[in-house]
Amino acid sequence: MLPTFPPVLRSQHARPAPWLAGSIALLLVAGALVLGLSGCGGDSHNGEGADAGNATYIPFDHEGTLAVLSEGTQDTVVTVDIEIAETDSARVRGMMQRESFPNETSGMLFPFDDEQPRYFHMSNTPVALDIIFIDADSTIVSISKYARPFSPDLVESGVPARYVLETPAGFSDTYGLVAGDRVRWKRIDTGP
């Protein structure tokens, strides 16, 4: 049984309280702002089609370095300045809404607590990426090259991985990275 309430009586000349109209207007403006900032661009290969004027600037936090070591010689192939995405919110955001890396040897490292197949997407990501999957022994196990901006398709590791490194598209080809190469990474000492 539903509760019943007495009817509300209003005179013909009753007006809503002035604060109510102001509150509704404020909510409508706030809602429009939120919707405008969370929109995504079209499906393109180079980020064109995204409304660059509405992009939110998210600074790159240089939190560590990662060296890629060649499979055969263990010589350092390239050293990458990394931002470390270790919180859930940082992992979800990743490179979304960022238009570029600071330079071609910058990347974002995603460390996870366990080793399992990993799935990444490019939704709301306006920059093409190479996505490098690394196992618990710090060995590159697979590389997905030239992941398309704004693509709804999942990028899969294909094998278990504990770490994922996102770099600018073409990075793996430029430096000759292959499965079997190893990585070593460390945080920058930020002082006491």
Summarize the topology:
Elements: H1 18-37, E1 64-69, E2 76-84, H2 88-93, E3 106-121, E4 129-134, E5 140-147, E6 154-168, H3 171-175, E7 182-187
Please give a handful of descriptors for the protein shown.
192 residues, alpha+beta, Jelly Rolls, 7-stranded mixed β-sheet, 3 helices, globular, disordered N terminus
In words, what does this structure look like?
It is a single chain. The protein has helices spanning 18-37, 88-93, 171-175, and strands at 64-69, 76-84, 106-121, 129-134, 140-147, 154-168, 182-187. The protein has a 7-stranded mixed beta sheet with strand order 5-4-6-3-2-1-7. Residues 1-17 and 19-54 have low confidence and may be disordered. The longest helix is centred in the N-terminal third of the chain and has 20 residues, at 18-37. The protein is built from 3 helices and 7 strands, in the order αββαββββαβ. It has 192 residues and is of the alpha+beta class.
Give me the number of helical elements: 3
Question: How far apart are the termini?
Answer: 65 Å
Give the proportion of residues in helices. 10-25%
CATH superfamily of the domain at 56-187: Protein of unknown function DUF192
**Would you state the CATH class of the domain at 56-187?**
Mainly Beta
SSE order in H/E notation?
Answer: HEEHEEEEHE
How much beta, percentage-wise? 25-35%
**Overall CATH architecture of the domain at 56-187:** Sandwich
Number of strands: 7
Reported by name, the CATH topology of the domain at 56-187 is Jelly Rolls
User: What's the pLDDT, averaged over the residues?
Assistant: 77
- Sheet with the most strands? 7 strands, mixed
- Poorly predicted regions: 1-17, 19-54
